[in-house]
Design a protein that fits this description.
With about 130 residues, the chain is α/β, with parallel strands linked by helices. The longest helix has 18 residues. It contains four helices and five strands. The protein is globular. This is Ribosomal protein L18. One of its GO terms (molecular function) is structural constituent of ribosome. One of its GO terms (cellular component) is ribosome.
Amino acid sequence: MTVLKRYVLRLFISLKYITANVVDRNNGRIVATASTVEHSLKKTLECGRSCNAKAATVVGEVLAMRLKVEGLEHGLGRGIHTNINKEIQKKGFKNRTKVWAVINGLRNNGVKLNIDDNVNDGSSPPDS
């Protein structure tokens, strides 16, 4: 039986910016978003020429707060789906700490995440 993945986490990571979106796959719209491009986040972070894992954690925390305001921190009971291996492959191995920082920022703030793959294949979160 396949699980319907209504809400999906999408990450966009460049050298200067980190953006995280939660997309409703039923109608293709973005439900909540957080990014280091926003002035409120840009002023509090010292990104300079590149953003680090600390900035990614803040993006995850802000996205979690916005999901709670929308009432979607549990994804209507099914959770918010993400495929970490796919995200790490798309973003490059160097950005794996940023991907995990966003994921952990969401988890630590009470967002129910469904990770769709086996995370014990070498891409596990880095030691703190």
